[in-house]
Amino acid sequence: MAIENFDSLRANYLKDNLRYKNYLEFLKERREQSKADLENLAQNFNIPLEKLQQIRTDIRKQLLSTEDKDYAAITTTFHLLPWELEYYLLAKKRINLLDYKPTHIFDIPIGYMQSKDEKPHQLTIGDRSFNYLELIFNVKKVPKTSYEFYLLLKEEFKKFLDLEEVDFSNLKEIVDGLFANQQFINSKIKPICNHLKSKNLLRLNKQELRIRDNAIDKLYEDIVKEIIYLIVDFLVFFENDIKINEKREKFLKTVKYLFSQEDLRPIFNALGLSLNVNIDDFLAFNDYGKIIFLIVILGGFDHIGAEWPEKDKLGKYNLIRKSLGLNLITEVPPNTFAERFLLFSESSLSSEANFKLVDSLTLRLLFSEAMPSITYLASFQGPFTGTFSPLAKEHRDIIRIIDFVSTYKLFLQEIKNGDIKFSNKMLIDIIKKYYETVFKGGIKEMLKNKIEEFEKNYLTDNNLEYDLFFSIEQFNKFLNESGIKDYSINLPLLMSIILENEIFNAYFKTDIQRLVSKEGGELLNKFLATGRKIKRLENFFEHLNDKQLVGNQDENTTMMFGGISLPFNLQTIDSDFIGLVMHFRRKLMFESRL
Prior knowledge:
- By secondary structure, this protein is mainly α.
- It has 28 helices and 13 strands.
- Strands 2-1-5 form a 3-stranded parallel β-sheet. Strands 3-4 form a two-stranded antiparallel ribbon. A two-stranded parallel sheet has the order 6-13.
- Helix 5 links the parallel strand 1 and strand 2.
- Helix 4 (49-64) packs antiparallel against helix 13 (244-259), helix 12 (213-241) packs across helix 18 and helix 16 (288-299) packs across helix 17 (316-323).
- The radius of gyration is 29 Å and the shape is elongated.
- The protein starts with 12 loop residues before the first helix and ends with a helix.
C-alpha cells in the first residue's frame, strides 16, 4: 500500500519539545497502536494465537526473567563506541525517568556493527581524530566488529594498568591511585603526552598566550588522563550498568529460541530470513536489525532507539511492521533523537549542524567536571525547551570560559580586520598597560613623554575611534623615527596582555549585573558586543531571573549565571579552541586559589 502522507505518521510535537514527559506520551501512543499485534500476526500468517502468546511469554521470561505482562521496553541505543559515551550516559538517565519497572527494560548492546563503519578505535579532539588503540596500547589492527573491539579493549586496558584481573566496581579508584604514582606517570603517561605534543595537537601560540612549555606539558597530561578516564567510564558503564555479558547471553539465547520455532517460518519468510542458517554468523554479519524488531513485536515491547525515518521513507521499525502486514505506528520525526538527543551542535557545519555528534572526548575536554551536571539537567528537559539552570558556580565558570574563548577568537579577528575601533583614551590606556607589564618597575620617563607626544600629535580627535593595529604600527613608526626602535610594541604580546591581563580579569571578576547592564568599561563592552554577535551571551543573560523546573523541584535561579540553550552552539570546534579552553580553565582555577 502506497503511503501518501509520511508526515501524518510523525510525532511532530517532538520537534519542538522533547521533555521526557512528551517522550513518555509518544511511547504510550505507540503502545496503544500496537496492542493487537499478536492477533493480527495470527490472522496474517495462520499461526495459532495461543502459540504466539506462548512465544511472547517465553521471550519475556528469557529477557526479563519474569512473566509479568506489564509494559516493557527494549533499547538499542547503546553501541560499543567510546566516542559516544556521553550520549549513552544521557540516554540511561533519560530512560530511567520513564515509567517502566527497572526489571522491565532490556538493553541490547549493539556489538555486531562493522568497526570500519563505526570507528570504535577513534577519538577526536576538536577537528583532529586519532587512533587511541594504537596510541595507548600499540595495537595496529582493529577487530572486525565493535563487540570484538570491546573485548580487545578490555584486555589491552588490563595490560596497560598491569592488572591480572579488573574489578569494575572500583576501577576508577584503581586508576586514581595510579595517577598519584609518579612512576606510572613517567613510564605510561608521559610517552603518550610527548607523542601528542610532537604532533602539535593543540596548535597553541605560545607567544600570543605567554604560555610556558611546562604549562603546555600539563595540558597534554590532562588530555591523556581524560582519555584514560573515558575508557574507564566506558568499560564500567557496559560492565556494571548495562551488564553486557549477561544481556548478550540472554539475547543470543532468545534469538536461538526464535530460530527453533517452526511455527514462525512464515514470518521469517516475509522478512526475507531463513531458519536454516548458522546463528553466530547470522548475528555477526546479516540483518540483525530485523531480528531485534521481530523480538520487539513478538515480545510486546516498546522500542527505545533510533529507527532512522527519512522525509519520504519509513523508519526501520515501521518497515518491518509493513512487511508483516501490521498497522504502521507513530514515528519520531527524521533527524530527531528522543532518548539520546544532540546536546551540542557545530554551526560551521551549515545544514548538517543539528545532526553531528560532538565526540565525547571533545565534550569532556571542554566541559570538564560540569559535564555530568549538564547531562543530568538535559535528561529532564530535552534539547528544545529553552535555557535551563541552575548549575553550580564552578560549572557556570566552565561554561563562561567556553564562551570567553569563542568570543575572544572572533574579537581578535575583528580587531585584526579593523572592524573594532577604540577611543583615543582607550588606545593610550592599552599602550601604557603594555609597558607596565613589560617593565615591572614602571614605565620609563622617556617613554611616558613619547606616549604623551604621540597622543598629542596622532590621536587628536576625541570624537573619533581608531583602528588598534594601524595605530600601534603608527606608534612603532613614531618610536623608530625618534631613535628608540628597541621599545617598539610587539603586537602578539600586546594582544596577549589585552586578553589575559585586561579582558580575562574583567570578564571573570566583574559582577554579573554590571555585565548585563554593560558597565564593564570600553574594552570589556566591545568584547561583550562581539559575543552577542554569536548569539550565545544573550542566551546566558536573558534568563537570570527565571524560575526553571528541574525534575520535580522548582528552582529559583536568580543571579545564577550559566543557563544553556540546547543544542548548545559551539561554533567551530577545532583543537586550537579546545587548547585555549583548557589553558584558561587552568588559569582561572589557579587564580581562584590565590
